[in-house]
Structures are given as C-alpha cells and as structure tokens.
Q: What sequence folds into this?
C-alpha cells in the first residue's frame, strides 16, 4: 500500500510532468509560428524580387530589341 505521502508525491510528479509538457508545447508552437512568419516573409521578398526582375526584363526587351523597335515603327507608320 502507498502512504498518503507517496500518493501525493506521485500526483505532484504528474502535475509537474504535465506542466513541463504544456510548457514545451507552448515553446514549440511559438517556434513554429516564428518559423512560419520568417518563411512567409522570405517568400514574399522572393516574389517581389521576381516581379521586379520580370518588369526590368520587359523594359530591357523593349529598349534593346531592334525587331521590337522596327515593329513598333512599322505599326506607327501604318496607323498614320
């Protein structure tokens, strides 16, 4: 038979184990949220860089492409 002291000690150990588990879960949840926020921010930054690069490429194509210039000139002449 367990004495009252042994039962109380067992109950206290369970309570502390539950508290430790809860605290660890809270820490893990906070860490996951932090990692998700970092990931989201890095994805958004990469998407913004990609959009800027595409826009620059389109502008560069207009400026550097002699065929595009010639086509634009012909279209302007035909419309006049």
A:
């Amino acid at each position: 038979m367990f004495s009252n002291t042994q039962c109380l000690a067992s109950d206290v150990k369970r309570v502390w184990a539950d508290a430790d588990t809860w605290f660890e879960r809270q820490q893990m949840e906070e860490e996951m949220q932090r990692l998700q926020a970092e990931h989201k921010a890095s994805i958004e930054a990469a998407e913004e860089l990609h959009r800027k690069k595409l826009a620059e490429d389109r502008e560069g194509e207009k400026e550097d492409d002699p065929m595009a210039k010639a086509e634009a000139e012909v279209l302007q002449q035909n419309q006049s």
Remarks:
- The two ends are 106 Å apart (CA to CA).
- The chain has a mean pLDDT of 82.
